[in-house]
Write a structure and sequence with these properties.
Blueprint (H helix, E strand, L loop, with lengths): L1 E7 L3 E4 L6 E3 L26 H10 L3 E4 L23 E3 L4 E3 L5 H11 L2 E6 L6 H12 L5 H8 L10 E4 L14 H18 L4 E5 L11 H10 L5 E8 L6 H4 L2 H22 L7 E9 L4 H8 L18 H16 L4 E7 L8 E3 L5 E3 L3 H10 L3 E3 L2 E3 L2 E4 L3 E4 L1 E8 L4 E8 L6 E8 L1 E12 L19 E2 L4 E3 L2 E6 L3 E11 L1
Parallel strand pairs: 1-21, 3-4, 3-12, 4-7, 7-8, 8-9, 9-10, 10-11, 11-12
Antiparallel strand pairs: 1-16, 2-15, 5-6, 13-14, 15-19, 17-18, 19-20, 20-26, 21-25, 22-23, 22-26, 24-25
Helix pairs in contact: 3-4, 3-5, 5-6, 6-8, 8-10, 10-11
The structure holds alpha-L-arabinofuranose (AHR).
Length: 506
């Protein structure tokens, strides 16, 4: 099969906001305890944070990490996680039917973010709590000393405000599973009033209001319309979530998920435009896709804990999906979508970062290892920064029941002007045939391949593990040729590639 792609230096979608390569850490399973935090671990620092995990996170160059939930935040008292550790209460976590020791709270998380070189994106509890607690939390984190909450923060060891800009107004409030679930009207009113109070404290905060938990939600997309009508003037982003799964073991449908993702984003972008017009606003609200990933491998094994059959365990192994090679293709396609939608998606978080549906796994007391999906995220985060190109793609298609016609080729292109590079991320969705791709490079000269990474495996179900961490990993690609204003590259069946070119403009 053959596909052709045209890249023109003036056909640009948008400057990519680097924050589309964000991640998420929730007090859930072993994400925090024996994930990032394990005081007895041989690599632990003075704060009890694992050095091996911190290094893997640093390598991903994640711009911000969303915290502390997720479903967890909707019944969380942030005050439980401050002050001397020995005085912190153990609470029952209603979202995941576990115990929360509160040994990690906002101070420990903030220090960890400093260590790994990332910013915080914090969520307030608008489930079991409301405006007052949200306001107090924001003042505790960002307020000046000389006021009640700022002084308390200083007493707990931190005088300087953290100056966190990104604040999520609750989590998945459209979901009936959420503690304190609300109708769109109820939530819209509460989020609007909370946003007003937070803005009265600091106009420069970036506020994120909850959109849909999935495009399959019965309330979608009406939820977005109603919530935005209540909040349009006081928020900056609307949050969307979506997880992909291959329960029915149908790879062509599975790999069509990002086509559905793209439609989801476009629909919400249109809803934003509708509300903007209706409210006669000058403001541009954009999308924060702050939970996305593959999530299904662990569903069965999690049931007993979620049903409470084990009581209230502390940090059990929950949502520990072990990703296979097929999931590499899926994650790569989703990242391509975020690049292609970078005009409206300004924030995104892979959910999650460590142990819980995560690219990084740990053994308590042992090593940390990379899942298969670590790699496409790594390449996009490191090399997918710059301007997203509006590629003209001509690819053969297949029909899927999930999303109609789906091109075999999924591709995104990023120009980094400062570095003088063009980077293409390519996936061949076909499991039967290789795809010969001709990329015409218009307005660029002197193209030279400087990096070519290939991920391919004879077994779609191949996984990595602590014992065999390199079973699925990238290899140096070969055969990509940049000549006479074009790039030719051959994609083996079911493969992912990154091709980077150094270019001049001409
Ligand atoms: O990331 C796991 C869970 O998925 C989050 O807690 C919740 O927001 C979503 O349903």
């Amino acid at each position: 099969m053959r596909a052709s792609v045209t890249a023109h230096r003036d056909y640009v979608i948008a400057d990519i906001d680097n924050r589309i390569y964000g991640a998420f850490l929730e007090h859930l399973g072993r994400a925090i305890y024996t994930g990032i935090y394990e005081p007895d671990h041989p690599t632990a620092d003075k704060n009890g944070m694992r050095g091996d995990v911190a290094q893997l996170v640093r390598d991903l160059n994640v711009p911000m990490v969303r915290y502390p939930g997720g479903n967890f935040v909707s019944a969380y008292n942030w005050e439980d996680g401050i002050g001397p550790k020995e005085n912190r209460p153990t609470r029952l976590d209603l979202a995941w039917h576990t115990s929360e020791s509160n040994q990690v709270g906002i101070h420990e998380f903030a220090d960890w973010c400093d260590t790994v070189g990332t910013d915080m994106m914090l969520a307030v509890n608008l489930g079991s709590r409301g405006l007052e607690e949200a306001r107090n939390f924001v003042e505790y984190v960002n307020g000046p000393t000389g006021s009640y909450w700022g002084d308390l923060r200083r007493q707990n060891g931190r005088a300087e405000p953290w100056d966190v800009k990104l604040w999520c107004l609750g989590n998945e409030m459209d979901g009936p599973w959420q503690i304190g679930h609300k109708t769109a009207e109820e939530y819209g009113r509460l989020a609007g009033e909370t946003a007003k109070a937070l803005r009265a404290f600091d106009k420069s905060l970036e506020l994120i209001v909850c959109g849909s938990s999935h495009s399959n939600m019965p309330t979608y997309p009406e939820w977005e319309r109603v919530v935005l009508e209540h909040t349009y003037e006081s928020v900056d982003h609307i949050s969307l979530h979506m997880y992909s799964s291959n329960h029915d073991k149908h790879t062509p449908n599975y790999l069509a998920h990002n086509v559905k993702l793209e439609t989801y984003i476009s629909t919400v972008a249109s809803t934003i435009d509708y509300v903007k017009a209706k409210t006669r606003s000058k403001r541009n609200v954009t999308i924060s896709f702050d939970e996305w990933n593959v999530w299904y491998h662990s569903h069965k094994q999690d049931r007993a804990i979620l049903d409470g059959k084990h009581g209230w365990p502390h940090a059990p192994a929950l949502l520990e999906d072990i990703y296979n090679f097929e999931d590499v293709l899926q994650v790569a396609c989703c990242l391509n979508t975020f690049i292609r939608k970078s005009d409206v998606v300004k924030l995104a978080c892979i959910a999650q970062l460590v142990n819980v549906i995560a690219p990084i796994m740990t053994e308590p007391g042992g090593g940390a290892w990379k899942q298969t999906t670590y790699y496409p995220f790594y390449f996009a985060s490191l090399f997918g920064r710059g301007r997203a190109l509006n590629l003209l793609v001509n690819s053969p298609v297949y029909e899927s029941s999930l999303a109609g016609d789906v091109p075999y080729l999924d591709v995104s292109g990023v120009e980094n002007e400062a570095e003088g590079t063009l980077t293409f991320f390519l996936v061949n969705r076909s499991g039967d045939e290789p795809l010969e791709v001709d990329l015409s490079l218009q307005g660029y000269t002197d193209a030279r391949v400087v990096d070519h990474q290939l991920m391919v495996h004879e077994d779609l179900n191949a996984v990595n593990s602590a014992a065999n961490p390199d079973n699925v990993r990238p290899q140096t690609g070969s055969g990509a040729k940049a000549e006479g204003g074009s790039l030719t590259v051959s994609l083996p069946p079911h493969s992912y590639q990154m091709v980077r070119l150094s270019v001049s403009k001409g």
